[in-house]
Amino acid sequence: MTSEVSINNKRIARNTFFLYGRKILTMLIAIYSSRVLLQYLGIDDFGLYGLVGSIVVIFTSLKSTFASSVQRFLNVNKKDQECQNRIFCVGMEIHIMIALLFMFLSGMVGFIFLPNLNIHIDKLIVAQNVLLFTILSASVAIITVPYDALIISNERFNALAIISIVDALLRLGAIFLLEISPISRVVFYAILLFGIAIINIILTRFYCNKTFGEISKFRYVKDRILFEKMTGFAGWNFFGNIAYYLTSEGVNLILNVFGGIAVNASRTIAYQVKNALQALVSDITVAFQPQSMMVFKDDKCRFYQLQFLATKIRFTVCVTIGFPIFLFVPELLQIWLGTEPENAAVFIRCVLLFVIIRCWHDAIDITFKSAARMKEYQLCEMFIMLFNLPISLSALILGLPLYAVFIIMSVIELINLVSIMFLAKKKVGFEMTSYISKVILPSVLVICILSILYICYSYSRIFLWNWLERGILCVFCIFVSLGLIWSILFDSLERGKIIFMLRHR
């Protein structure tokens, strides 16, 4: 291992450590916040916010995805401060335009569709107010993106961690303020989240101005060539990812039509588990991303080593955490929420399958981003992912159970994965054969073995009556998952790299 590669691996380990330290704290806060929020709002308003207010959750989740668009150009031009400032300014102009476009489209579509949803007439004005403030919050989050990109491209993940923790604590504080709400609690909560979004952009901007100086000073820049390049990259990245989230929220609307607000509440709980797990996975992508993009042109071997390793680590996180959740989801819901909402357990089990399939997706995504070949890739994704809506609607009309929509999502995501792999091989030379043989097939083998263990446990007559016995079995499941993954998925070289990264975290 060369000295430079060793230093880079240490940096990746340090970045991962900061990101996971942040994520553990924010997840603990979010888990507690969900319990308190459900108590304050009640099941109906909680479901209403899950249906309407999830727009802001979407764009909070999308921030790192948007940031990678600007970050890619910053990483490529890392040594030229004047060029970096121009990239930052053009990126800000683009994201202001995206925010304005989003406000117009989401406002128009939202206020047209709200009266047609399964919402009681007395709650319609409440839903409209929640929609208004969540649109504003999401727009502020979009404008924050160039600052996030600047922080990520310079690998200042300690600052990103602190800002995220402050944001999570403010959200928790907002929930406790609901007790003194002078208006509808769910509307007051949406207003408070809008205020927190403003505080977040102020903190991020202050840090960037203090740390990066002139690079982060916004000014109007007229550079048509750079604007066209970045607009093409950011624009296709935006619309491709928005198709993914529109599909997700479209399914939520379909569930509302067939099941009402209570089903939306269960779906919101399931998606909190999904978003938490995907956030852990995305932090691995963020930690590996800067160096992957920098070596793509000059060292393809290093690039694919990093991406294959990152995918395996993502899969490890998904399965190690997801398998015990799958096994004990009813009991965990009792601890988490104090009750088990109808359909929540089966929804969570179905979305866990989707998360595992989705974790194979990022290596292909980073390859297209590094090559700046976004158009065909995002068009392919948009076309395939949008099939979720008509197929899910048809399934429920035919009388299939509500959880069928999540199984359909997983099947279509698998079709999408195969399609973009072939496209990546054709357009950017993606090493598809190696990816399948070294990453996907061993991962599938691990899933098959764990599935057999789950079936054996389900059909056995083992009853665990106390929490100590369940806790011991949960820890045992984690070690079994790690043991299988370590022996089947990782080769000896990757094991050495992981041990090195853990020692130098």
From the structure above, extract its key features.
mainly alpha, 505 residues, single chain
Brief digest:
The protein has helices spanning 3-52, 54-76, 81-113, 124-153, 157-176, 185-212, 224-259, 261-295, 300-337, 344-358, 362-371, 375-385, 388-397, 404-428, 432-459, 467-488, 492-503. It is an all-alpha fold. The two termini are 17 Å apart.
Give an overview in words.
- With about 500 residues, this protein is an all-alpha fold.
- The chain has one domain.
- Helix content is about 85%, strand content about 0%.
- It has 17 helices and no strands.
Shape type: globular
Poorly predicted parts: none
Q: Which class do the helix and strand fractions yield? A: mainly alpha
Number of domains: 1
Give the fraction of residues assigned to helices: over 70%
Give the rounded overall mean pLDDT.
Answer: 80
Structure annotation, total helices: 17
Strand content: under 5%
Order of helices and strands: HHHHHHHHHHHHHHHHH
End-to-end separation in angstroms reads 17 Å
Radius of gyration based on Cα positions? 22 Å
Number of separate strands: 0
Largest sheet: none
List the helices and strands and how they pair.
Blueprint (H helix, E strand, L loop, with lengths): L2 H50 L1 H23 L4 H33 L10 H30 L3 H20 L8 H28 L11 H36 L1 H35 L4 H38 L6 H15 L3 H10 L3 H11 L2 H10 L6 H25 L3 H28 L7 H22 L3 H12 L2
Helix pairs in contact: 1-5, 1-8, 1-17, 2-4, 2-7, 2-8, 3-4, 3-7, 4-6, 5-6, 7-8, 7-12, 7-13, 8-9, 8-10, 8-11, 9-10, 9-15, 9-16, 10-14, 11-14, 12-14, 13-14, 15-16
